[in-house]
Every structure is written in structure tokens, then in C-alpha cells.
């Protein structure tokens, strides 16, 4: 099982949904960088369960502890181990699911692949695995911000059939995103989204959504031809997240309806370098960052575990009715916002370190 991501900035996550704890080992962080739990906790607190009436009622503070790799508040250049204890496990909620694979969940595929699985909470397929990603991503986010001034902001741009209008990607902030519990920065749309999620929750059902993300002030030259192109690494990072079903960057699928004369991004001078008049490329050309804002979207399916009765079969093939009893989000996208930001940070930091090896900035 591959639980490691990155080439020079490597993160290895560990833990299951209902074990004693989850976390990550980060290898390759530059030495002498100021780092304490206070740098990491804000993103974990944005991701944690039970933070609003629209999320799972599982009560976890998700307090992170740095176990190694720092001294007196500075990184040592050695592996950093971060741990978050699970405090509110309820494996008994999953007794029925030990014999019934949940529709559209990973229960069946994990069992067939390994011959065994963590039957409570989904194990490694649970969204609690992303705690390690967010903790590591907070480190990368700080390094990118202090080194290059990079700003990474994600927001909910669609829930179900409700989509927000285009926003000004050049100025949107995390504070504006967090002003609404659905994390959509457009107030009128956020209210409609919240109502929809509340209706879905009351019906014991779930709904999907889309998260948009912008990365500003990304330096030129990030991305490795041919297989480690920047957009390819971003796609891998995003599609490795639980419940993701789609990724597009720049004009994405909508760009296929345009002609080249409409879609091309003409160059214009910008100081000692070039800029582009438009940005249909989404900040990436030839798999390499061109200095413009990088923006992309990630599609999340409806949460698979729902409370409604579902006709299905057990592992033996016998017909049965499943009414899941675990605690789950009716819509995952509000809590997934910091996860998307974190994965983007991991990709950009790893590629920035690789670019420094080629040609120092």
C-alpha cells in the first residue's frame, strides 16, 4: 500500500479512522524554519469534524503534536513526525457493516485486494486519513508563503445543482471563505447551499459538490517534463483524496468548446518577464508554471455512507437492507476546502525544491 507522496518533500501518512491516532512523517523539510504546533493547528481546525451543524457530529479537537524534527521551535532538517489522537471512536457503530459492504464505499474493494480490512469507519479509506495530509500541507504552505509569497485559497463553488457565480480569484481570502459555514464566499449562494445541505441531512441522504482553488504568486518554472507535469501532479494529488471524481484546470472541459483564436493566452510584457492577457491555461503551459495564477476545480461525489435504507447484498451475496449508523457528513466539500489547499501546497513545495536543484531561483 502506497502511503507516501512527493519526491524531495516526502509525506507518509499513517493511521485509520478508529485506531488510537493518525498522523504523518514529513521528510525533506529545509532546516532552520520556524515551526510549532501553532503553525499547523489552524488548518486542522478548519478540517476537523463537528465544527458546524452541517458536518458529522463526531467530536474531535484534532490537536496536533510535533514528536520529532524540531528543537526550540525550529526545524532540524530531520524527519518531522506529527500525531493527532483519535478521541471519539465508536467502532460499535459499524458492527452490521462487518458483513455488508457499503454501496459505493471501499469496503468490498479493500476486502478483495487484501483479504482483510478495517471494518470500522473505513480504515485508510476514511477521510480521517487526510489529517496527516493537512498537517504536512500546513508546513508546505508556510514555507511557500515565506519563501515566495505564495497564497493558496480554496472555496466551495458548487453544492449539488447550486453553483456560485465567478468570483475575483485575485483577491479572495480564506477569511472570506470561512465567513459562511458552507465555505462559499458568495453570500446569497452560500445561503441556498446551506439550505440544501440541511434538507439532505434531514432526509438522511448526501450530496456532492465542487471545490475551486487558486494559487497566487507561484514562481515560474515549476513542473517536470514529461510525466511529472505540474497539472499532472495536481491531478494526482486531488484525485487521491476520498470521494473525488473529477479534476480540471484553467478553462478545463469548458475550453473544448472554444476555438484556438479564442482560447490562446497572448503574451504581454511584465517587467523583466512576460505575462499573459488572459489565463485559459490556468497558470500552466507545457506542464510548467508560467507565473500566472494557477486555478483548478475538484469534483466530490455524494458521501457514500447514508442513513437511508438501501437494498444491497452482504459479502456472501445474500439480499439485505443496509441502514448505516456511523456519523458522516451530508456533504463533504465544506470540510474538504483545507484538504485541497494542503494537497496543492504539497505539490508546489515538492516541485519548487526540485526546481532549485535544477536552477536556483
Description of the molecule:
The protein is α+β, with helices and mostly antiparallel strands and 361 residues long. The chain has a single domain (4-358), classed as Chorismate synthase AroC (Chorismate synthase, AroC fold, 4-Layer Sandwich), CATH 3.60.150.10. The chain is 27% helix and 22% strand. The chain contains eight helices and 18 strands. It has helices at 37-47, 107-114, 130-148, 174-177, 187-202, 230-239, 260-263, 333-358; strands spanning 4-5, 10-14, 21-27, 64-68, 70-71, 74-75, 80-85, 151-159, 162-163, 209-216, 244-249, 267-270, 273-276, 284-285, 288-289, 294-300, 310-313, 319-322. Strands 1-2-3-7-4 form a five-stranded antiparallel sheet, with helices on one face. A five-stranded antiparallel sheet has the order 9-8-10-16-11. Helix 1 (37-47) crosses helix 3, helix 1 packs across helix 8 (333-358) and helix 6 (230-239) packs antiparallel against helix 8. The longest helix has 26 residues, at 333-358.
How does the overall form come out from the CA principal axes? globular
Number of helices: 8
Mean pLDDT: 94
Strand content: 15-25%
Span between termini: 36 Å
CATH superfamily: Chorismate synthase AroC
Helix % is: 25-40%
The CATH architecture designation is 4-Layer Sandwich
Number of domain units: 1
**Low-pLDDT runs:** none
Q: Secondary-structure element order, as H and E? A: EEEHEEEEHHEEHHEHEHEEEEEEEH
Spatial strand order of the main sheet: 1-2-3-7-4
Number of strands: 18
CATH third-level topology: Chorismate synthase, AroC fold
Assigned CATH class = Alpha Beta
Q: Roughly how many Å is the radius of gyration?
A: 21 Å
What does the largest sheet look like? 5 strands, antiparallel
- Sheet/helix structural class: alpha+beta
